[in-house]
Structure formats: structure tokens, C-alpha cells
TrEMBL record:
It comes from Zea mays (Maize). SUPFAM superfamilies: Thioredoxin-like (SSF52833). It is found in: Endoplasmic reticulum lumen. GO terms for cellular component: endoplasmic reticulum lumen. This is protein disulfide-isomerase.
């Protein structure tokens, strides 16, 4: 890849299938600065009016610590999957700030862009959270949790919870699934214990957990102690760990330091570059 000097990066980076733009995209997504991203269909609709309004907004806020991108739906499918967006929400504008909070406005009009950005800088916007729907039926041995109920399920349930963060395409996660089912079935009679799983590609992972690869497992006690699970990967190993580590009802609340992340199976370089801050959404 050719060297790109920061001064040569356009004020608004274009996300399309033109390979000439890819070096600028890499610079954009590698930056730790807040990012504003406008996604729409370049081929239909009032693209020119959006491009003009967005460029004007980027110029107006040039003194703010924020970078701007305009993306074509067709070229941005990886970004849509990563952020949990849908094509029928476009035109949409999304901001991801330095704390990984996201702010979203769907069906945005070109003349609303500047006002919405001002609300962001004034701290008036509510963060957007990517989450699958909360399951209506959740009666399998390993319980399904999503971003919208993970805190209630894991931290407020009063139970000892072993939670797996997985990716549907991960072969090691698929191998672990029946093992977790077996462990959960073994512990089904223990009302103080739950084994759960979350699709970390379809839900925002809570800040209490550092997920750098798949599968990653954590054990959370009723008092709020968070421990990365790095023991064996047989059902017996998991059951033994839970029995030795669990707290009984009424245990005193303790303050703990989160343990380092445990990626049991997939080295970070093999997992996905999305979780390395590199955000490679194009080939």
C-alpha cells in the first residue's frame, strides 16, 4: 500500500468500490478520533444534495476532533453488518466516538445533518446500541443473551454466570457449543448457576468484558466478580471450575479487577480485523 500523508486525506473520505480510495479508508478507520459516517445509495436518490450538505458540514466542524466519511450502500455491507445497520434505514448517519459509543440517525434528510451534528457536540444525543431482539423463548440449556438484556441477565440476576462470546462462523466456537450444552445440562439442577452465550458479531459487547477473539468466556459471580475463563475445554473441566468458583446466595459484595481476556481458540490475527481497531470492511 502506498504511503498516505495525513495532509492529503480528503476532509470527507469516500467509501465505494474504487480501489484508489482504500488507502484513505484505512487511515480513516485506524484513527482513534470520533468518526461520522453517512451511508446512502450513490446510484439513486438525491445523492448530490447529500454530498454537498455533508461536505458543508465537514467544513463547518473542521475544528472539531471528528473525521467524516460518505459511503455507498453497495460497497459498505461489511460496515452495515459490523454496526448492526439495515439498508432500509438509509440515508443514515452514524457517529462512533473515541469511547466506542455510537449515535445513529436513520432516514436523515440532507438539511438535518448540521443540526444533528450540533446535538452530538452538545451532548444531547442518546447512544445507539447494537442488539439482537431479546429471545421470547429461552429454554435451551445454554441461555441466549443479547446486548439489551445482558446486564440484567449477567450482573443483576443474583446467579453465577459463565458467558461465552462467540461468532457464528467460528469453527472453534462450533466445536465448543455441544460441550457447553453438556456442562449446562449437568448443572441444570443448580439454581445458582447459569451458562449463557452471546453472538458478539450481532451485539455490542459490554465494556465489562474485553473480547479480542472467539470464543472468549467469562465467569461472573453474584457479587460482581468478573474472571476470564482459561481452564480446560471439556464439560467436566467447565463444571469443576464453576463448582469451585461459584458464590453462594448472600455472598458479600466485593470489588474486583477484571482479569485479562481469554481467547481460548482463535489467535487475534486469525479472528477478525474488526476487533483490532483496523476495521477492514473492503477487500
Amino acid at each position: 500500500m502506498k504511503f498516505i500523508d495525513a495532509s492529503t486525506i480528503p476532509r470527507v473520505v469516500t467509501f465505494d468500490k474504487n480501489p484508489d480510495n482504500h488507502p484513505y479508508l484505512m487511515k480513516f478507520f485506524q484513527s482513534s478520533a470520533p468518526k461520522a459516517m453517512l451511508f446512502l445509495n450513490f446510484s439513486t436518490g438525491p445523492f448530490d444534495s447529500f454530498k454537498s450538505a455533508y461536505s458543508a458540514a465537514a467544513e463547518e466542524f473542521k475544528d472539531k476532533e471528528i473525521k467524516f466519511l460518505i459511503g455507498d450502500i453497495e460497497a459498505s455491507q461489511g460496515a452495515f453488518q459490523y454496526f448492526g445497520l439495515k439498508e432500509d434505514q438509509t440515508p443514515l448517519i452514524l457517529i462512533q466516538d473515541g469511547d466506542s459509543k455510537k449515535f445513529l440517525k436513520v432516514h436523515v434528510e440532507a438539511d438535518q445533518i448540521v443540526a444533528w451534528l450540533k446535538e452530538y457536540f452538545d451532548g444531547k444525543l442518546t447512544p445507539f446500541r447494537k442488539s439482537e431482539p431479546i429471545p421470547e423463548v429461552n429454554n435451551e440449556p445454554v441461555k441466549v443473551v443479547v446486548a439489551d438484556n445482558v446486564h440484567d441477565f449477567v450482573f443483576k440476576s443474583g446467579k453465577n454466570v459463565l458467558i461465552e462470546f462467540y461468532a457464528p462462523w467460528c469453527g472453534h466456537c462450533k466445536k465448543l457449543a455441544p460441550i457447553l450444552d453438556e456442562a449446562a445440562t449437568t448443572l441444570q439442577s443448580d439454581e445458582e448457576v447459569v451458562i449463557a452465550k452471546m453472538d458478539a458479531t450481532a451485539n455490542d459487547v459490554p465494556s465489562e468484558f474485553d473480547v479480542q477473539g472467539y470464543p472468549t468466556l467469562y465467569f461472573v459471580t453474584p457479587s460482581g466478580k468478573v474472571t476470564s475463563y482459561d481452564s480446560g475445554r471439556t464439560a467436566d473441566d467447565i463444571v469443576d471450575f464453576i463448582k469451585k468458583s461459584k458464590e453462594t446466595a448472600g455472598a458479600a459484595t466485593t470489588t474486583t479487577t477484571q482479569a485479562p481476556p481469554a481467547c481460548l481458540c482463535i489467535p487475534l490475527r486469525l479472528c477478525t480485523q474488526l476487533h483490532r481497531g483496523r476495521w477492514v470492511f473492503f477487500s
